[in-house]
Write a structure and sequence with these properties.
- This protein starts with 17 loop residues before the first strand and ends in a 5-residue tail after the last strand.
- The strands form two sheets. The chain has a nine-stranded mixed beta sheet with strand order 3-2-4-5-1-9-10-13-14, with helices on both faces. It has a five-stranded mixed beta sheet with strand order 6-7-8-11-12.
- The chain has a single domain, classed as Class I glutamine amidotransferase (GATase) domain (Rossmann fold, 3-Layer(aba) Sandwich), CATH 3.40.50.
- The protein is α/β, with parallel strands linked by helices.
Length: 264
């Protein structure tokens, strides 16, 4: 049964830094420009986390063709493990202490949970945000940034709510983030989540589109749209229980309304 819990659950992003979920697909110049600005430029140290992908190991050859390298970032380092114990080793996480930005590649979000949730890596990512850094991620790398994890099932990415895989890294909270929204016709999938968890703010990001979240506000950047799912939204004239934001729109997650933009 739906309650008014959403009225008492103001959502927020990082207080000092920036979370930048991206909806997958081709990442356009406008998104990379914003990431570079928030990270302090192409000479800043950036950590790339490809762990959502299928491979057991990743080397520098992946960086040679990475979108960040093609854009011009000069100091990229890979962080990857399938061993959760390694994620707690001081030497393994040291690279995150020097980073100005982190980029999660796409794949399956359950692999990120298995490797990094509630580890020293997780804590260092929070510390990076606390000192004003930026964490971006595309596709699975977007979804993992919410507090409630959707499509986390090992069995397949059509399962929205999977027991044992419902907790994300929580850079935006209480928020659930979906991706490839319009491209894969997923517009109605988030409705089942907020029906059960009405306190959650649902965000559906289409391909080539990101949100830049800081404090309680985010700005939409990219070529397509972001859908907003709010249990208190009664629906528009079109009968849909969600509504869209486009490039340049700003949204207050706590107030759950469109506002004027103030983000860098």
């Amino acid at each position: 049964m739906q309650t008014n819990a959403a009225l008492h659950s103001p959502a927020t992003g990082p207080a000092r830094g920036y979370a930048m979920p991206i909806g997958g697909g081709a990442v356009g110049r406008e998104i990379l420009d914003r990431f570079a600005k928030l990270a302090g430029g192409v000479d800043s140290p950036i950590v790339v986390i490809p762990t959502a992908g299928e491979k057991d190991s990743y080397g520098d050859e992946e960086l040679a063709r990475h979108p960040l390298r093609r854009y011009g970032f000069a100091h990229l380092t890979i962080l990857h493990t399938r061993d959760k114990a390694k994620s707690n080793e001081a030497g393994f996480v040291a690279v995150l202490r020097r980073a100005k930005g982190v980029w999660f590649d796409g794949g399956r979000q359950w692999r990120l949970v298995d490797s990094y949730l509630e580890t020293s890596v997780h804590r260092e990512l929070e510390a990076l945000l606390a000192r004003g850094g930026v964490v971006a991620g595309s596709s699975a790398g977007a979804t993992i940034q919410g507090s409630y994890l959707v499509r986390g099932a090992r069995e397949g990415n059509t399962v929205m709510m999977a027991k044992g895989y419902e907790q994300g890294l929580g850079f935006l909270s209480p928020v659930a983030i979906d991706q490839h929204l319009i491209a894969r016709k997923r517009e109605n999938d988030m409705l089942q989540v907020i029906a059960v968890r009405p306190e959650i703010l649902g965000l559906g990001l289409d391909e080539g589109t990101a949100v830049v979240a800081h404090g309680t506000k985010f700005e939409v950047v990219g070529v397509s749209k972001v859908a907003v799912y709010d249990a208190n939204y009664a629906g528009g004239e079109d009968g849909k229980r969600y509504y869209f934001l486009s490039h340049g729109d700003c949204f207050d997650m706590a107030a759950r309304k469109k506002v004027a933009c103030e983000l860098p």
